[in-house]
Amino acid sequence: MTMTDKIIIVVIVVIVVFLTISFAVHAMSHITETRENARIQEERQQSFRLWLMMRHVEEMMFEFRAIEDGEKRSLTWVSAKIGDPHSFFTDVVFVYNSAEAQYFPYNVVVAWPSENHYTEGMLTGINLLLSPENIPVPYYVPIRFTFTMEDFGLTYPLTITDLIDNWDKVFTLWANMDVEFALRDAARQYPHPWTIQPYHHQLE
Hints:
By secondary structure, this protein is mainly α. 51% of the residues lie in helices and 8% in strands. It contains seven helices and five strands.
């Protein structure tokens, strides 16, 4: 084997090693980038989920506990900050009453159905408007709905448990009620205890 042949072999080996290392570096870079993109996407989804949960709190008239540095934060403040990586609040949970809030740390926003019956009133309004029996309602609704609760994986009538355990399905239903002939505006007429009492017997 001549010196020229040896040089050619060395050059080929160097090229192969270089290409192998380059491919490995590129593959690792791609894996790292993919993982980073997945992490960013997961964070965005989580932020959006937390924002939707705060929207659910507002729409269903939940009460909530959000205390930072000894100061109670407003719904508007929490909704604007929740999901931000630098926010003090890192999660939102739904419980059945204010007493259950004590079991969660202060970095968790805890929300529960209104203890003044406003959430109960929202449920009454939704159930009356989406009743399969077309129960007459005292507020003018120009056009009836074109969907059922079952279309959203829910069962009539909605209950407080649905608002807590199936909040995402209820929120989707609620969003469609807004699109569907503004039925949400009619449902909002019910949150007052003195308004809903005459119609409870129609849902029993």
